[in-house]
C-alpha cells in the first residue's frame, strides 16, 4: 500500500509543482487527502482479517498517512533543488513564444518590456511556490515578500524609504513558516533571482537587437537631417516645378511608372532577405517587369480603337 500510494502521488505532484500557480498547493493537499484516504481504507480492510489489536492497527494506518506526506515532501525538495532550471525554462517559454505557443518574430511592434515583466513575474511565482512546503492550510506572506523585494524595489519610480532601507529578504527564515517546512530561504531566493536575471539578460538583449535590426531594414526613409537638407537645397528646383506645370505632369507619370514597378517587383519583401540577394533577384526580374508594364499599356491603348474601327466599317 505504501508502494501504491507512492505511485499515485509522485508524478501528479511533480506535474503540479511544475505548473506552479496560486492553486498548486491546494491542489496537492486535495490530491494527498484523496489518495491517502483511498490507501488507508484499502489497508484497513486488508488488515481486518489479521485480528490485530486496536493500537497496532492505528499505528499501521498512521504510518501509511505519514508515508503519503513524506512522498510529497520528498518530491517538493527534489523540485526545489532544480528551481533555477525551472525558472529559466518558464521564462524562455513565455518570452520566446506568443499566446498561441508559436515562436515570436521580433518585427518591432512587440512591447519587449511588458513581455519581459510578464515572463519574470511567472518565474517569480514559481520561486514563491517552491519556497516552502504548504501541506497545512496555514497562511504565509512569501509571495508578497518576494514581490515587494524583487519587483517593486526594482522599479525606478519607487520612493518608499522603507522599501529602500529594509531588505525583506535579508533573513534566513520566512515569517510564519517553520524551519522544517522551508525549502528555499529568503537569502537563497535573493541569490537565485540575481543569478536568474543575469542568465536571462542575454535573451532580452538579443530580442531588442533583433527588433532594432528589423526596424532599420523596414525603414526606407532617409534620416531627418537629410530630409531637411533636401528641402533647403532643393527649394529653387521646387519653385521651378511650380512655375512650369509640364514638369509636374512628367513627374506624375514617372511616379506612376515607378509605383507600378515597385509593386510588380515587390521590392520591400526582396530586401528583407539581404542587400546582395535582393539585387541579384531584382536584376533578373527588372526587364521582364518593364516589358510586361509596356505590354499592358499598349493593350489598354489599343482597346478603345477597336469599337471605332467597327463603327467606320
Automatic annotation (TrEMBL):
Keywords on record: Membrane, Transmembrane, Transmembrane helix
GO cellular component: endoplasmic reticulum
Spans traversing the lipid bilayer: 246-263
Record-annotated Sey1/RHD3-like three-helix bundle domain positions: 1-300
One of the protein's GO biological processes: endoplasmic reticulum membrane fusion
Pfam families (alphabetical): Sey1_3HB
Top-level taxonomic group: Eukaryota
Listed name of the protein: Sey1/RHD3-like three-helix bundle domain-containing protein
Originating organism: Eremopyrum triticeum
Amino acid at each position: 500500500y505504501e508502494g501504491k500510494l507512492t505511485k499515485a502521488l509522485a508524478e501528479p505532484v511533480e506535474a503540479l509543482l511544475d505548473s506552479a500557480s496560486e492553486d498548486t498547493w491546494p491542489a496537492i493537499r486535495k490530491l494527498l487527502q484523496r489518495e491517502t484516504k483511498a490507501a488507508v481504507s484499502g489497508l484497513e480492510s486488508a488488515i481486518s482479517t489479521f485480528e490485530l489489536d486496536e493500537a497496532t492497527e492505528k499505528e499501521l494506518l498512521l504510518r501509511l498517512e505519514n508515508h503519503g506526506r513524506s512522498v510529497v515532501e520528498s518530491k517538493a525538495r527534489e523540485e526545489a533543488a532544480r528551481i533555477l532550471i525551472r525558472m529559466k525554462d518558464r521564462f524562455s517559454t513565455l518570452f520566446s513564444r506568443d499566446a498561441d505557443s508559436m515562436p515570436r518574430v521580433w518585427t518591432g511592434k512587440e512591447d519587449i518590456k511588458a513581455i519581459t515583466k510578464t515572463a519574470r513575474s511567472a518565474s517569480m511565482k514559481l520561486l514563491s511556490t517552491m519556497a516552502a512546503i504548504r501541506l497545512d492550510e496555514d497562511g504565509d506572506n512569501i509571495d508578497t515578500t518576494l514581490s515587494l523585494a524583487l519587483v517593486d524595489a526594482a522599479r525606478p519610480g519607487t520612493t518608499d524609504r522603507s522599501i529602500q532601507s529594509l531588505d525583506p529578504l535579508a533573513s534566513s527564515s520566512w515569517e510564519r513558516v517553520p524551519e522544517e517546512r522551508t525549502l528555499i530561504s529568503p537569502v537563497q531566493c535573493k541569490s537565485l533571482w540575481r543569478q536568474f536575471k543575469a542568465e536571462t539578460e542575454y535573451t532580452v538583449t538579443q530580442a531588442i537587437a533583433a527588433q532594432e535590426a528589423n526596424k532599420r531594414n523596414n525603414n526606407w526613409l532617409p534620416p531627418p537631417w537629410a530630409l531637411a537638407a533636401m528641402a533647403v537645397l532643393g527649394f529653387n528646383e521646387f519653385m521651378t516645378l511650380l512655375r512650369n506645370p509640364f514638369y509636374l505632369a512628367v513627374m506624375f507619370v514617372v511616379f506612376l511608372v515607378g509605383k507600378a514597378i515597385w509593386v510588380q517587383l515587390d521590392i520591400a519583401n526582396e530586401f528583407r532577405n539581404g542587400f546582395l540577394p535582393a539585387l541579384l533577384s531584382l536584376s533578373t526580374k527588372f526587364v521582364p517587369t518593364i516589358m510586361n508594364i509596356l505590354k499592358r499599356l499598349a493593350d489598354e491603348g489599343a482597346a478603345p480603337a477597336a469599337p471605332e474601327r467597327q463603327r467606320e466599317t
